[in-house]
Amino acid sequence: MTDSTARWTEIEHLPEWDEEFYHVYTARKLGKWVMLKTLRPEYRDKPEYCRMIEQEFDVRYNLAHPNIVMINDFEDVPGLGRCIVCDDVYGTSLRKLIDTGGVTEAHIGQLRRCLPAALEYIQTNHIVHHPIRPERIIFTENIGNLKLIDVGFEQRESLSRASAADDIRAYGEVVREALDASGIEDNRLSDVADRCLRADRRRITDVQSLHIALSGERRARRFYFIVIAFLTVMVVVLAWLSARPVNP
Description:
- By secondary structure, this protein is of the alpha+beta class.
- It has eight helices and ten strands.
């Protein structure tokens, strides 16, 4: 048996990652880097908060998406108590990148491609979660992959249309802030962000429409229908000309 003290080494608190009810740590588990999420000391002995962290573990344990932080275990850690054990995603939050002028085209590209995919996965699995914000988007240290943290605390049979629309608005707010801070010109993404934030019927309110807008598929479909309509008219005109009697 491995001694619990030897099992856990190099435990370090990450204050900038802390959440309302939780402290977050980085540590080595049997030599492998992981992240730990545990109740703040003032909540550890309160049954309602213990049930809260247990429910979050149950909801998130079966989630599997490349842009969502994976949960591996739920166990006691010396000096910290009961902890959710996650993959190591040490890196830089989008909030810090925005505040320090560090947003690059690579980051913007992942906001365009990866963040909508993660949102779709969360909605498909009917996960109730905190609003998507720059603080909850991490770009990993070595590779720079986008990862969502703190993505869910309850799973339901379905999500309301209003909840799904709130996700899209949050996406627009995140992208708008990142684009404005970086000065990067991406006309399509900028237009999509603005449409996510509109207050009229042109507002994007669901993830399927978001994908279509980002891909430009709607414009392609409009062009396709115009071409088909033109060809149909030409066929009719040619058929009419062919059917006309020829004068001797």
